[in-house]
Amino acid sequence: MIRPMIVCLHGPESTGKSTLAEALARHFDTIWVPEFGRAYCEQHGTDFSMADLVAMAEGQYAATLAAIPHARNGLLLLDTDPLMTAIWADMTFGARDPWFDRFTDVADLYLVPGIDLPFVQDDVRLYGDEEERARFYRLSVEELGRRGLPWVLIDGDADARLGKAVAAIAAAGTKPAA
Is the pLDDT at 178 greater than 50, yes or no? Predict the structure, then answer.
């Protein structure tokens, strides 16, 4: 089986990653992998440990591997990946488990939604303060840069974000479904 191109939404919470992943999956007639950590926190709460973050990253990665055979049109979309969980460790604990730096099965392209949308609080979001959001965004982009991974800023309203994301994916080699 040929591995599909994997595109991951990457960045702070409440930036529209899930909404955009779902819209892109419809546009490209493929599937997307939801955020494992959200479901984990909804079940176990947000008072998590480093071991919990590693478990979330491992769960996200397992869900990604399970989805690969079901991807269509040469594309799989991820709401997040273990690199994002590493940033959660950095934000929450100021350090990360070595597991995160050993993780190398990264996406082919990262789409980073800007922090230009208003923060919407819910039961599992933690970093809504303007300074925290800016730090979360900065750490997210720095991680991609440190690893030399391709990424594109996706900002603006919902329509602009979708258009920029579609263009970025098409430029990386995947065309919309006919």
Answer: no
Q: What is the pTM of this model?
A: 0.89
- Alpha carbon 19 to its chain's center: 12
Q: Can you name the residues that pair with 114 across neighbouring β-strands?
A: none
Q: Which of the listed CATH numbers 3.90.950.10, 3.30.565.10, 3.30.70.100, 3.40.50.300 matches domain 5-172? A: 3.40.50.300
Q: Residue 166 in contact with residue 176, Cβ under 8 Å?
A: yes
Q: What integer pLDDT is reported at residue 16 of this predicted model?
A: 76
Residue type, 117: L
d(CA 163, CA 178): 17
Q: Count of CB atoms within 10 A of residue 155's CB?
A: 15
Beta bridge partners of 78: 8, 33
